[in-house]
Design goal:
The structure is a single chain. The protein is an all-alpha fold and about 150 residues long. It is about 75% helix and about 0% strand. It has seven helices and no strands. The C terminus is likely disordered.
């Protein structure tokens, strides 16, 4: 399924017309069954593509989180080691580049879910340095704000 048609499908999941939405739900369910390996990356691509409507990006984030939870419950998260590594890297990149607070929060939820599934430095070696750099940046921002506050 092409990226544009997948985005169109996600848009149809939010329409008010029950018939259109039901057909979209059936198509999405078939994608979940038939393209289970590709679905996480497809949803992440929708999330990071700024040309998509914010509502579609938000829906993709919710669906990605839901997909990971469902797969974890069934012990069937089926990404290969290489694709999981790439997915995790893309997820951290999306988190770093996201400015909208709702999407950033949903991406953090997804990172947390993946960490909960298999958290060890060997499985996600770039997570700890990324987290450490976020904390350092946060302290720099807080220190700067404190200094500015003291002068005003």
């Amino acid at each position: 399924m092409s990226g544009d048609s997948f985005v169109s499908l996600l848009e149809q999941l939010s329409v008010m017309d029950n018939n259109i939405r039901k057909l979209a739900e059936e198509r999405y369910d078939s994608i979940c069954r038939d393209n289970c390996n590709e679905l996480p990356q497809m949803l992440l691509q929708v999330i990071v593509d700024k040309s998509n409507a914010e509502s579609v990006q938000r829906l993709a984030a919710v669906l990605l989180r839901r997909h990971i939870v469902k797969e974890a419950e069934n012990d069937s998260f089926v990404l290969t080691t290489e694709s999981l590594s790439g997915f995790r890297s893309n997820l951290l990149l999306a988190l770093e580049n996201e400015n909208e607070i709702y999407l950033k929060s949903r991406i953090c939820d997804i990172v947390g879910l993946l960490c909960d599934e298999d958290m060890s430095e060997e499985t996600w070696p770039d997570l700890l340095p990324y987290t450490y750099s976020c904390v350092q940046v946060c302290y720099v921002v807080l220190d700067t704000l404190y200094v500015l506050y003291m002068y005003f």
